Amino acid sequence: MKKALVVYYSRRGENHMPGGIQVLETGNTAYAARYIREAVEGDIFEIDTVKPYPAGYKACCLAAVAEMTAHARPEIKGPLPDVSGYDTVFVCYPIWCGTAPMPVFTFLECFDWTGKKVAPLCTHEGSGLANSVRDLEKACKGAQTAPGLAIQGHKARDSREEIAAWALENL
Q1: How far is Cα 28 from Cα 25, in angstroms, rounded to an integer?
Q2: How many CB atoms lie within 10 A of CB 148?
Q3: What percent of the chain has pLDDT over 90?
Q4: Which terminus of the chain has a smaller tally of CB atoms within 10 A, N or C?
Q5: For residue 85, how many C-alpha atoms fall within 13 Å in the half-sphere facing its CB?
Q6: Residues facing 123 on adjacent strands
């Protein structure tokens, strides 16, 4: 049986949703990651930054733009999982500035992806996968990239079946 790891970054607190800014106790991407973990019976790891992002949505957006512009790699909390024992790594993230948040790249750039399958899932509010798959492929040299799945963030909580089916197809 193939062994899977689900890695995710998700934003709690203020998020952009239809109708404006809403405060979420659980970020949209966290729901998607949990659905994948349940479907594939894999392990899960949440990417969390040492320095928290600003609580306010607009301030967080400004910080994300500054990081992206600087090609920053924010420090993330460890210990990191050893990906060498996994066949498939599901990478879940919201779209920030047309790609995955910079802490996702901090994580990805720590490992040798040769011979692994990387399956990207993003949450978004209109941009789809944007440039994220291309950017993940650059960060995961040597990996086979599965077709990505884009889920509108405000629908993630209610997308268990779609997410689980996609995950099982890409195991």
Answers
A1: 9
A2: 18
A3: 98
A4: N
A5: 4
A6: 94, 151
